[in-house]
Amino acid sequence: MINQLRIYSVPPHNRGPFLDRFRDHAARIMGTYGFRIQAMWTSETDEALKFVYLLAWDSEAQMKDAWAAFMDDQEWKDIKVATSAAHGDFVLGIEDMVLTPTDFSNGIGGSA
Question: How many contiguous H segments (helices) and E segments (strands) does the chain have?
Fold first, then answer.
């Protein structure tokens, strides 16, 4: 098992529309492709909203296949176009980390 940590930087003025879009659309569509969202957080500064979420995957191959399917999903593509037209840029940047547990980890995904 591996985890994936994603951190999105969102313009402060798009806080509400971004969170609504993720909650109402992205998370739902992701679920149809096997995404297992473990937790979601926000961290805010004057410059940006940081939206952070943790995913669990059985393997990197599963993760890559699911992301490819999600990004190719026509409903998701249409939602992104519509919400961007209404609110402008939603995401200033994305940090993406694949987290592989150590053999001495006892946290999420650990084996000890």
Answer: 4, 4
**CATH number for 41:** 3.30.70.100
Q: Which amino acid type is present at position 108?
A: I
d(CA 40, CA 17): 16
Residue 91 in any domain: the answer is yes
38 C-beta neighbours (distance < 10 Å), count:
13
pLDDT tens digits for range 37-95: 999 999 998 889 999 999 999 999 999 999 999 999 999 999 999 999 999 988 999 99
Task: Kindly state whether residue 111 falls inside one of the protein's structural domains.
Answer: no
Please state the domain count of the chain: 1
Containing structural domain, residue 95: 2-99
